[in-house]
UniProtKB/TrEMBL annotation:
Residues 20-48, 83-110, 286-387 are annotated as: Disordered. Pfam families: Nop53. It comes from Channa argus. It comes from the Eukaryota. Residues 31-45 have a biased composition (Basic residues). This is Ribosome biogenesis protein NOP53. May play a role in ribosome biogenesis. The lineage of its organism: Eukaryota, Metazoa, Chordata, Craniata, Vertebrata. Belongs to the NOP53 family. Residues 20-29, 349-360 have a biased composition (Polar residues). PANTHER family: GLIOMA SUPPRESSOR CANDIDATE REGION GENE 2, RIBOSOME BIOGENESIS PROTEIN NOP53. Residues 291-309 have a biased composition (Acidic residues).
């Protein structure tokens, strides 16, 4: 306690320090001294009294908040004023006009709520260090210093040269002119139409869902130009004209003839020729073939081997210098001959300009004809079914009645074909679905037959 009292006396005796709070403390209150070992560090904070120091610092902070600094550092004019009594009415200055409503005979004062919300601390706010920090500040500072040094020497950087060389693009923003409602040339807008009038930014309308996504043009193209429901020929009516019925019969006849030709073609390929069948005589010839000529081959074989060996020895011999020079000279002559021939061909082409022009025109006409054929082929393929899957499209059999099967009225007409099958084939023909077959049922496990007890008793 003695040390604390000594520290308090030292603080209070500092020159120029004025305390705002009363420094009356209970010095007379004596407490029993506690014996503490101060040699150990753990007892320093535990048993040391710092209330006087904290009180002094709190008083300093209070002076800074209320007066903006220590009272000892303030001038006398800011702390005191001379009271000479109330001034006369003539000497009183006219009150300054204050904005807002005024009461009669009273000067307007600020509201209490505004006074509470005002900043009453005279301490300046702390400096925000993070607000002054910049990423890569040292690097940018170094680049700026280097640019200043180059500018002092008169050197222009490459990037600045490019910017100077580029021509500035003058962009004039067009102001949106709103038309007047009474303008007779104004466009007509149908209020009850299906199209919505777009007003606002296109990006905003798209993000908010008010504007639909633009549909690709490829999706608008149909996979086939064929109609959904094909109308049958007039000969397929229940009471057709004679000529139209005969034309339909002729068409069906051509289809059947084509099928028959394909079947005959397959049968011809599979038919076995009798001359190709093996007999005893042909088998014997195949067995004997090659046995008679073996002796002649054995005699001629050694002579051929000797010739091959001599040829290999001759090829393996080294060329002389004279032969190499001769070959080199012949090679140079051949190259010169080819170069001269090319030059003469180029010169002759000058006299063939007319024929070259005619050939170019003919080639262009051929390419145009090929383009027309290609376009016509593409248009024809639009009406044909494409290969979409593993299977090929098989057209449906024609539903036709013979002359003796025709009915005179609708009551006697017999129904033919299937509407479901017709629609299914139409989808395949228009390239909407791929041709497919009915799934074959394959039994996973074999059937097991078991005789029941009741059946066994009967047998």
């Amino acid at each position: 306690m003695a040390a604390a009292r000594r520290l308090k006396r030292v603080v209070a005796s500092q020159p120029g320090f004025v305390s705002l709070k009363s420094s009356h403390t209970s010095d007379t209150v004596s407490t029993r001294r506690k014996r503490v070992n101060k040699n150990k560090k753990k007892n320093w904070n535990k048993h040391s009294d710092i209330n006087d120091v904290e009180g002094f610092l709190e008083d300093v902070r209070l002076q800074e908040r209320t007066t903006g600094g220590l009272l000892s550092e303030k001038s006398d004019e800011s702390l005191f004023f001379l009271d000479v009594g109330q001034p006369n009415k003539a000497e009183q200055k006219a009150p300054e006009p204050v904005e807002g409503k005024k009461r009669k005979g009273k000067q307007s004062r600020p509201l209490r709520i505004d006074l509470i919300l005002q900043h009453d601390s005279l301490v300046s706010p702390p400096k925000d260090v993070l607000a002054y920090q910049q990423p890569n500040a040292k690097k940018l500072r170094r680049i700026a210093q280097k640019a200043e040094q180059l500018a002092a020497k008169g050197v222009v950087p490459r990037r600045q040269k490019r910017l100077q060389n580029t021509q500035p693009v003058v962009r004039t923003a067009k102001k949106a002119v709103t038309e007047a409602n009474n303008n007779p040339d104004r466009g007509y807008y149908d209020l009850w139409g299906q199209e919505t009038k777009e007003s606002g930014n296109s990006w905003y309308l798209q993000q908010t869902g008010k504007k639909l996504v633009k549909r690709p043009e490829k999706l608008n193209e149909k996979p086939s130009v064929l109609p959904a429901v094909e109308v049958i020929a007039p000969g397929g009516s229940y009471n057709p004209d004679f000529f139209s019925h005969q034309a339909l019969l002729q068409k069906a006849h051509e289809v059947e003839v084509k099928k028959q030709k394909e079947e005959d073609k397959i049968e011809k390929k599979l038919v076995v020729n009798k001359e190709d069948t093996a007999t005893e005589e042909t088998i014997f010839r195949e067995q004997v073939e090659g046995l008679v000529e073996e002796e002649n081959e054995e005699e001629t074989a050694p002579n051929e081997e000797e010739e091959d060996q001599t040829g290999a020895i001759a090829l393996a011999g080294k060329k002389t210098e004279r032969q190499r020079k001769k070959e080199k000279a012949e090679k140079i002559k051949d190259q010169q001959r080819l170069a001269g021939r090319r030059q003469t061909e180029h010169r002759q082409q000058l006299f063939q300009l007319r024929s070259i022009k005619t050939s170019i025109k003919q080639q262009e006409q051929k390419t145009k004809a090929k383009q027309k054929l290609r376009k016509a082929k593409q248009e024809a393929q639009k009406a044909q079914p494409r290969r979409l899957g593993r299977l090929k499209f098989q057209p449906q059999d024609m539903e036709i009645q013979l002359s003796d099967e025709l009915a005179g009225s609708l009551r006697q007409l017999k129904p033919e074909g299937s509407v479901l099958k017709d629609r299914f084939k139409s989808l395949q023909k228009r390239n909407l679905i791929e041709p497919r077959e009915r799934a074959k049922f394959k039994r996973r496990h074999k059937l097991k037959y078991v005789e029941k007890r009741a059946f066994r008793e009967i047998t």
